[in-house]
Specification:
elongated; 2 domains; disordered C terminus; Arc Repressor Mutant, subunit A; mainly alpha; about 5% strand
């Protein structure tokens, strides 16, 4: 499992760690029952504080993606991958609903909104000229 941390972004380090582990679980890169690196090992490898890795694991555990056992470590849960994906989809829908409402208020057309979404999805950061 490869995790890339950016110190220059707005997203906290623990969220970056949790997000990348969550993506690996949802994509099947981390299978059910797979062991995660220890908190100390991951912190050392990423050159971040152990507090950041601990918080990331706590978030993942709270959301049901991993289980932690005292003295044994943390493991990917046996939750249904489709159920986890559906939960993510609901969060995306809520964010898109907010964006659509903002676009309507601002007079941005559906076509313009689609172009922005497509640019963001393709990784262009929405910086293309319209």
């Amino acid at each position: 499992m490869k995790i890339i941390i950016s110190n220059s972004g707005d997203q906290p380090i623990y969220e970056q760690i949790a997000g990348q582990i969550k993506n690996a679980i949802l994509s099947g890169g981390l299978a059910e029952g797979a062991a995660l690196p220890s908190l100390r090992f991951l912190a050392k490898e990423l050159r971040v504080s152990i507090i950041s890795t601990k918080r990331a694991y706590e978030e993942l555990e709270k959301e049901g993606y991993i289980e932690s056992f005292q003295g044994k470590g943390s493991f990917v849960t046996g939750r249904n991958r489709e159920l986890m994906r559906e939960e993510q989809f609901k969060k995306i829908e809520a964010s898109l609903l907010s964006a659509v409402e903002m676009a309507k208020i601002s007079g941005i057309s559906l076509k313009e909104l689609e172009e922005v979404l497509e640019a963001l999805y393709d990784g262009n950061g929405g910086c293309e000229e319209r």
